[in-house]
Amino acid sequence: MAVEADGVPTVAVHTHVFARLARNAARVNGTPTLRQAFVPQPVVGQSAAQLRAYIEGVDPVNQRPFIQEVIDGLTAPLTEADLTGVSFERNTPRLLEPGTEADLARRFEEERWTDYLPIVLPTEERVAAMLEGTSRKPDEVVGRMRPTNYREFWEYTVEKVAVNAVMAGARPAYFPVILAMAASGMTARQSSTTSWAAPAIVNGPIRNEIGMHCGIGALGPYSHANVAIGRAHALLSQNLQGGSVIGDTYMGSIGNVHNYACTWAENEERSPWEPLHVQHGFRPEESTVTVFLGGWYVISGYGPRATWEERFRHCLAACEPYSPPILLLDPSSAQAFVERGFTKKQQVIDWCAANAVVTAREYWDDPWIQTLIKPHAVAGVEPWAGMLKAAPDAPVRKYRAQDISVVVLGGETQAAWKMVGGNFARARIMRIDDWR
Amino acid sequence: MSALLTVHDPRGYPPKVTGKRLAPRLASLEGKTVHLVDCLFDNTDVFMRELKDWFATRMPSVRTEILRPRESWVDDPALRARVVAEADAAIFAVGL
pTM of the prediction? Predict the structure, then answer.
């Protein structure tokens, strides 16, 4: 779109499933008549001959020959609408028109402001009570968020975050955690075709102050605080970023159960190692929340037992290459690692980095590695540049150690562990104390 | 009759949209340079090579060149500047 502004005519090409999203993105850029041509989905996995057939075939959205759409898009005379674009303001009111409880509940659902579970209606009294959970002013801007890089940022205030916290059923004591998550700008409603979520780890004293649970069932619905904070992050993401509507602002093909809520607390008291936030330079008495882009996969297991190294290698090989794992260890599992000589968390991370090995052929045969990592490799950035030169059957390390995380949680009823996708390179650690 | 409640709107604040005009169109593509910008989605490179070949075969007077940004998902001002300086038109394969 910026190239058009500089005087060069363009046509944007998409697959047909992105038609609504692409047209809406053009509209909110002020150029609703931007020339766009479409080919059938998919392009991924298609041969050169099949893609040539797309080029010589019919645009499935505009119902005209694709190549004619492209040529006309660059040469057909402009219309009056093309010369002016469209300007408009979208005001978000502070309050809605009054209604009955049933009517308002229905409206929130129909407007897609909920996750389809019942919400707590954000009355003025409830929102005012939530605002008591912070010293920040209601009209203070907290941050900006968008569902994907191709959409515009929306902005939000402390009060708008409070509204969504009320809807999620959160209590005022949780509000500093929720504000910190909102301030991260990390959306829990990413629009990517890969169905991301935003797993988050809470560390520090606030866990116990507000009743977060990190023992038996730490990942499950066994704490009001855990569930309400995670749900608040999810609801505020979809509402404060401008929606999470299928075909418009959400394109995750399979979807993700972690989109309901996935905020967890580290069991620092039962861990043999330093907690996640201390590992990254914070003091133990500080409270933080680390928000990841992840949750695409979960692999679970037991131990470490006698064959743990083989099992870990298999599991690490199975993890998605673009998304290094957050290794979640039950305290008894962590202790067993200590007994095997892993006296520091970093040793576990280093072992995983050294043993997450696949062939170069397998590593590069991944959509996100092709899209997001290969350009760095081509530009000469290590370690990827060297991996790109590797022979197809040569072993390569999938992950850098600094992108892997280890978190201890659980209740010691079993030496269990999980690997959950979550790239630390794309995570943000937020100080909760700043939002008290 | 049920009591009426007043509740907050849960949505954030969108930016103001300012209309922008499209660039002047070309009279035709004959003899023109068209940049084919591969935005690095999986297999888009194959699509762009086929598109380049289509022009070479069916509209040989059109000069085409495939360009790639330094990485996907981010703006590349250097690439944009090159398109503006060297091309008469551009085709972006952005959402494949």
Answer: 0.93
